[in-house]
Write a structure and sequence with these properties.
Helix content is 73%, strand content 0%. By secondary structure, it is mostly helical. This is Defective in cullin neddylation protein.
Length: 130
Amino acid sequence: MCEFSRPEFIGGLQALGVDSIEKFRERIPFMRSELKDEQKFREIYNFAFNWAKEKGQKSLALDTAIGMWQLLFAEKQWPLVDHWCQFLQARHNKAISRDTWSQLLEFAKEILQKRKLHKKEEGKIKYGKM
């Protein structure tokens, strides 16, 4: 759960072209920028479910899922992540299935798109362009 083996870690660093702490620091902005790419984010998001769950379990512990969502959506700036997590703690209080994990990404994507559209339309109305 939430661990890389030494060979996985070293292989990941090699794939990034990192062989020192300084090069690792230099690569951080690049790795963060990859989260802005929708396809790359989806890959990382889907990977995170299996990586974070306990070995042999089908679902992800609620506390672990909440931590992962807060971490993953920090770069995406999804404004409802805290509300979602609070709702789950107050009402759901169960492990998170892969289906719930996957559907949340689709829901967040739709909300972000609607939010962008709303802001765009709001700007047109505000400045008399509509």
